[in-house]
Amino acid sequence: EVQLVESGGGLVQAGGSLRLSCAASGFTFDDYAIGWFRQAPGKETEGVSCIRNSDGSKYNVDSVKGRFTISSDNAKNTVSLQMNSLKPEDTAVYYCAPCYWVVGVGVFLESDYRGQGTQVTVSS
Known about the structure:
Elements (H helix, E strand, L loop, with lengths): L2 E5 L2 E4 L4 E8 L7 E7 L6 E7 L5 E3 L7 E6 L4 E6 L8 E11 L3 E4 L8 E6 L1
Parallel strand pairs: 2-11
Antiparallel strand pairs: 1-3, 3-8, 4-5, 4-9, 5-6, 7-8, 9-10, 9-11
């Protein structure tokens, strides 16, 4: 059974940092790219970052470049998202899921599998 479990969300002031983690199980980790997506109330889901576990290549969308860093630990089957210089507009439920990216376009869901999400709230 595929499982993706996120942790690390919370409340932080603008300019602060949070680190999200995604623990994956039930599939061959190296065969997939895993990414982070977010959905704010009343808005569509947005892919923000994606990493290919087989070779470590990664992609961030423009809105988070220079602020968010995605990484993976293939030994632990985890994907992390270090979020720095957080802004109120980063407030959303963040979840991890298999992903792919199109350079210059965005990060997209690869399948229907996703975690339950973790809330990130950035106060101004």
